Amino acid sequence: MQLPNPPRPDQFHAVKSVLGSERFARYSPSVAAGDEKLFECYMWNLALCETFYFPLQIAEIATRNAIHKALLFRLGQRWFEDRVFVGLLGAMFRDELASCLASEFDQHGAAMTAHHICSALNFGFWEHLTTKRFERLLWSRGVRHNFPNAPASPRTRDELHNLIESVRRWRNRIAHHKAIFDKTPSRKLQDTLRLIHWVSGDTADWVTSASAVQAVINARPAP
Fold it and tell me: In the chain, what are the domain boundaries?
């Protein structure tokens, strides 16, 4: 793995000032002293974040589509207008749905479909639909069948919720440009692949073979 060249010695002070000395200090315990080593570790972490984009995107889309299929099966194409469903939503997610509907209608008008809504709602919304409050409405009547490779146990819904939360929090950490190199990235990769596998084993196998995450993890710069 070829990382970008570090700034020249006469540039490093400016780069460090722009990015924040505290950001670089985050890497100090993991590398030898010296600006070049700090920058090398920083850029390696950045490369690691970039490679996670692919499996995380597939995991999020696979998850929301699986849950959306259950909504369509249980409540029909206008599931987002169903009073029972909307009433079960937590206040924050009810507001998110209302905002999403208004935004998507502004863009698409009468051509707006359930699939527009599905793609516009955030990952946290879909995670919310795996909480206990939706057990009777969705889980036993659709969602479970759209995660065919999930373990068959009384706690499957809880396990799915926890797995989605783990993957979502990891995605958010990366999206907020935080360090991930020392936050068990290999285990988080396995969580991501496991979530995909619960929806589709073939898709998980493809992502596993195509992802560069583990290769980047293995290419950690020498301290």
Answer: 68-146, 151-223
